């Protein structure tokens, strides 16, 4: 078992007094090490049965006690949602409102061909269908493992439920009773930890699917820490990116067809390191650094030995430490001002491995197709209510037919609408 030890100093074997002093320091260091968590993730059993507190791997004394916060058991009421949104700040001309309430643990969203908004969920095993412009919220699939990732194409709903991708034909006509699904891909591990997925269709009908390891920082098996390109029609898959820690968001650049994706960097280095990332796939099979190099220029204290960050593909943009970027979309609508065309909107879920939370907002990224001229700015913020308190946590973004943005909030159990008018 790996252990985290504070600096002990050097033992001077020639002097008995110093030997006693060093023995005392050793005892103190061992006591500290017993206070924190560290796991041996090299054993097969770790991958098949990750411990419940797997996120504590390589925990540090300085950050001991931090843990992912538990969200509210039930979705926020409409009155509370409206109160929360009154504190949200947006650029001039934009406004935010509640599109749908009662969408417990709302995650990835996808539009059906007939205007049904399907929404996956994080911890409640449910896929929702929202109709009547947000007025009706209906569970259409229940009892699943964790159906965070969903997509829609040619009348069919696709759901990533941890260890398989399911296809539901003629979904919008079957909201009262969904048809039996077809498994279109199942070469996927069964663990839940970092096993939640995000699905992105390209123009050819293939899905981009990220695969995260069930650990904070470790050497993963060769089948993990990667992004795959999957053909749901045949089950064929290709490996397009490796060295990826935890990605739960991505989209296709309408200008080039390239896949861009968000990535959550490792925890337990410090409050301010490393930065989470926005990545751009320009070369098939590129290595994005994990677990050796973080944020493109920070070698890992343990796994970075013998490596240089120049060996790996750097991020297109550093998003900030522990902001937890999740769902993202290129803006292809017409409602927003012209300067928003092809901008990227990112839902930042917000920190947990930080003494003072940041994130919990929607960011706007302006970039050229190559990612060379790139910058970010805050677009919507106001869901952090204290050093370690949230009123909401944005989790995904989708465009509506009228050009407005919809934002899923898995903390408050709601979907918001951001619109613009002069």
Description:
The protein has 422 residues and is mainly beta. It has two domains: 1-31, no CATH class; 78-420, 6 Propeller (Neuraminidase), CATH 2.120.10.30. The chain is built from three helices and 29 strands. It has helices at 16-34, 44-48, 78-85, and strands at residues 94-101, 106-111, 117-121, 127-131, 136-141, 149-153, 156-160, 165-168, 182-185, 200-201, 207-211, 226-230, 237-242, 250-252, 259-263, 275-280, 286-287, 293-294, 298-299, 317-321, 325-330, 344-348, 361-367, 374-380, 384-386, 389-390, 394-399, 405-409, 414-420. The protein has a five-stranded mixed sheet, with no helix packed on it. β3 (117-121) and β4 form a beta hairpin. The model is unreliable at 1-34 (pLDDT under 50).
Tertiary shape: globular
Please give the number of β-strands. Answer: 29
| CATH class assignment of the largest domain | Mainly Beta
CATH topology of the largest domain: Neuraminidase
The largest pleated sheet is described as: 5 strands, mixed
Q: Over all CA atoms, what is the radius of gyration?
A: 22 Å
Describe the structure concisely for a colleague.
With about 425 residues, the protein is mainly beta. About 10% of the residues lie in helices and about 35% in strands.
